[in-house]
Write a structure and sequence with these properties.
Structural class: alpha+beta
Strand content: 25-35%
Number of helices: 14
Helix content: 25-40%
Number of strands: 26
Shape: globular
Length: 579
C-alpha cells in the first residue's frame, strides 16, 4: 500500500515517511501539565495527541456548560497551548486532541484567538456530530440528561488533517481514534483497510492512558524507575503494525508487560469494537525488539458493528458521606452502636444507606491512628433535604452520646449531587459526523458501509496444565500482574502471567469461581472470563460491581483502579516451581 502525505502541497507536511511517530501527552483531564512541553522537546514527533475525556469528565464538562454555555471543553488544554503552540508549529508537530469535550467549536475558536494574540499562523480543524442531546427524543434516549454523546471514529480527524489542519480538536470520539485518524490520513488508508486500522486502534489503545504504558500504575513498579515516567510514542507503519517506545532519557519503561497491562485495561472479550473497525485482541502479538521498544504486530480487523455507543450522563440525586473513627477495643460493637443510633435518628430515612467498616486498626498499636478503624456511611436520595442537613445534624448530635472516643474525619456537609453514567446504542447511520476544515468548510463523514454484528468468539483451548507438584500458600501477585478499571457500573480485571509455566497454571486456576472466592464483593455478580494466550492473560468483566458508575461514588474504590492489586494480595496455593 503506497504511503500518502498527511497534508497537501503548500502546507507544512510530514512527507512520505515510512513510519509515523505519534506521541501522547495526556491520559485524562488533570494529567501532568508539563507533558506537552516534555513531548515536544524530548525528541522527534510527527503528531502529538491528548486524551482528556472519561465518563466522569463528560459530567464535569456538562456542569461547566450549565454555568456558562461558552464552556464545556477541557480548559487545561488551552493553557497548555498558550505555552506550547509556537513550539508545536515550529517543529511541524500536528496536535490532535479530544479536549473539545461538549464544545469543540468553541475550543477551535479559542485556539484561533490564541494564535492571533501570539502572532502565529496555524490552521485549526474540529470534529462535531457526537452531541445527541438536542435530538435525544429523536434517538429514543431518556429525558433529564445532562449530556448524550456518541463515540465517533477516526475519519473526521483524517479529513481535517488531509485538508491541512495543524491542530484538530474533537468532542467525544473513541480514545483510539486520536491515533487511527492521523495514521489513516498519512498512509492513505480507506475504510476497507481493516487490518491496518485495527493495528492503529490497538496502538491508540496503548497510548490513550499516557504513562500507564510506560510503567505508571504498573504491578511490578519496583523493577523500574517510575518516579517521573515518560509518555508513550507509537511508531506506526503502513501495514498498521507499530513499535511502542518513549523519548530517550525519560523515566519509566516500555516492556511487553507494561504494554500488556495497558492492552488489558478497560477491555472485555476478543472483539474490541469501535466505529471504524473491530480489532481482534486475540491476534495481538508483542515482541521486545530493543530497550524500551515493544513491537505490536499481527492484529486482525473485522467490520465495525452497525451501532454506535452513546455515553449518557445525568444527575442521579443527592448524596452525603460521614466517616466515623473507631479507636481501640470493641470496634465491632462501637460500629453497631453508632449505626443503630444514627439510623434511628434519620426521619425520613434516605432511599439508600450504605455502611462499610474498614478494619485499619492494629492490636497494641503504638500510634492512635494505627489503633483506629473507619466506619463510612454513604446516603443517597432524590431529595437534598433528606441527605443534607438532616444527616449532618444527626451525626453531630451523637458527639457526646455514642461510643467512647467518638469523632469524625471531618464535619459532614450539606450533601452534593451525584452523577450517573449509562451507555446506549444507536444506529450509526443516523448520527451526524462532520469535519469542519480549517477554511470553515463542513464535510460530512459517511458511516461505515460494511458492518458486522458482534458475536462471541469461540474460546481458545487452555494451555497444557502444569505438572502437579508441591505448593505454597502465597499472594497471587508474586507470580502474576494485574490491571483493573471501570466501564460504567462494571469493572474490568485483567491478569497476566510472567512466564509460560505461570500461564499454564494461571489459565487453569483463575476461574470465575476462584474470582468469586478471592473477591467476595463479586460473589453474587455476573462475571465473564476471556483467555488471551498470546498475552498469557485472563480478562474478567464483573458486571455491576461499581453500581451506577464512578460519579455515583457507590464504592470505596469507585473506578476499580485497585481491584487488581486487591486480587494480587490474596493468598492461594501456588506451585513452588513458580515461586
Amino acid at each position: 500500500m503506497p504511503a500518502a502525505r498527511l497534508l497537501p502541497e503548500g502546507g507544512r507536511r510530514l512527507g512520505r515517511r515510512a513510519v509515523l511517530r505519534i506521541g501522547n501527552a495526556s491520559g485524562f483531564y488533570g494529567d501532568r501539565f508539563s507533558a506537552f512541553r516534555e513531548m515536544l522537546t524530548g525528541g522527534p514527533l510527527d503528531v502529538l495527541t491528548g486524551d482528556y475525556l472519561a465518563e466522569l469528565t463528560m459530567l464535569i464538562l456538562a456542569r461547566d456548560r450549565l454555568k456558562d454555555p461558552q464552556l464545556g471543553y477541557a480548559k487545561t488544554f488551552l493553557r497548555q497551548m498558550e505555552e506550547c503552540l509556537g513550539l508545536a508549529v515550529d517543529r511541524g508537530v500536528r496536535i490532535v486532541v479530544n479536549a473539545g469535550g461538549l464544545n469543540p467549536a468553541r475550543l477551535a475558536e479559542a485556539l484561533d484567538e490564541l494564535a492571533g494574540k501570539q502572532g502565529i499562523a496555524v490552521r485549526v480543524g474540529h470534529v462535531t456530530g457526537d452531541d445527541l442531546l438536542p435530538r435525544a427524543e429523536e434517538f429514543g434516549l431518556p429525558t433529564g440528561l445532562l449530556a448524550a454523546n456518541a463515540y465517533l471514529g477516526a475519519w473526521g480527524i483524517a479529513e481535517c488533517l488531509r485538508a491541512g489542519a495543524e491542530i484538530v480538536v474533537t468532542g467525544r470520539v473513541t480514545d483510539a481514534a486520536l491515533v487511527a485518524g492521523p495514521a489513516a490520513a498519512h498512509f492513505g488508508w480507506g475504510p476497507q483497510d481493516l487490518d491496518a486500522l485495527a493495528g492503529a486502534v490497538i496502538a491508540g489503545h496503548v497510548l490513550e492512558c499516557g504513562a500507564q504504558a510506560t510503567g505508571g500504575n504498573y504491578a511490578f513498579f519496583r523493577e523500574h524507575d517510575v518516579t517521573t515516567p515518560g509518555f508513550p510514542i507509537a511508531e506506526i507503519q503502513a501495514d498498521g503494525s507499530s513499535v511502542i517506545t518513549k523519548h530517550p532519557g525519560t523515566g519509566g519503561a516500555v516492556t511487553t508487560e507494561t504494554v500488556t497491562a495497558q492492552l488489558l485495561y478497560e477491555t472485555g472479550g476478543a472483539r474490541y469494537a469501535g466505529p471504524d473497525v473491530t480489532a481482534r485482541l486475540d491476534t495481538v502479538r508483542l515482541d521486545q525488539v530493543g530497550p524500551d521498544r515493544v513491537r505490536i504486530s499481527g492484529v486482525r480487523g473485522e467490520a465495525p458493528p452497525p451501532a454506535l455507543k452513546v455515553g449518557l450522563n445525568r444527575i442521579g440525586g443527592w448524596r452525603n458521606e460521614v466517616v466515623f473513627v473507631l479507636t481501640g477495643l470493641d470496634i465491632d460493637a462501637k460500629a453497631a452502636l453508632v449505626q443503630a443510633q444514627l439510623e434511628h435518628a434519620l426521619d425520613p430515612r434516605p432511599a439508600e444507606l450504605s455502611w462499610t467498616l474498614a478494619r485499619t486498626d492494629h492490636p497494641d498499636a503504638d500510634t492512635e491512628e494505627a489503633a483506629s478503624a473507619l466506619l463510612r456511611l454513604v446516603v443517597k436520595d432524590r431529595d437534598q433535604r433528606v441527605v443534607g442537613r438532616a444527616v449532618s445534624t444527626a451525626a453531630v448530635e451523637l458527639g457526646l452520646a455514642s461510643y467512647p472516643g467518638f469523632h469524625l474525619t471531618a464535619l459532614p456537609g450539606p450533601g452534593a449531587p451525584y452523577g450517573v453514567f449509562e451507555a446506549a446504542f444507536v444506529d450509526a447511520r443516523t448520527v451526524p459526523h462532520t469535519a469542519v476544515l480549517p477554511d470553515g468548510t463542513h464535510r460530512t463523514v459517511p458511516p461505515a458501509m460494511t458492518t458486522g454484528e458482534l458475536t462471541p468468539v469461540e474460546p481458545p483451548p487452555p494451555p497444557q496444565q502444569l505438572t502437579a507438584g508441591p505448593t505454597r500458600r502465597a499472594p497471587l501477585g508474586l507470580v502474576a500482574g494485574a490491571r483493573s478499571g471501570d466501564k460504567g457500573g462494571d469493572a474490568n480485571l485483567g491478569v497476566w502471567a510472567r512466564s509460560e509455566p505461570g500461564w499454564r497454571w494461571l489459565a487453569h486456576t483463575l476461574t470465575v469461581q476462584k474470582i468469586r472466592e478471592l473477591l467476595p464483593e463479586a460473589a453474587g455478580l455476573q462475571i465473564e472470563r476471556h483467555l488471551f494466550p498470546n498475552l498469557r492473560a485472563v480478562n474478567f468483566t464483573v458486571t455491576g460491581l461499581l453500581g451506577e458508575g464512578v460519579a455515583a461514588q457507590a464504592r470505596f474504590d469507585p473506578q476499580a483502579k485497585a481491584l487488581g492489586e486487591w486480587l494480587r494480595a490474596r493468598h492461594l496455593d501456588i506451585p513452588e516451581a513458580l515461586l
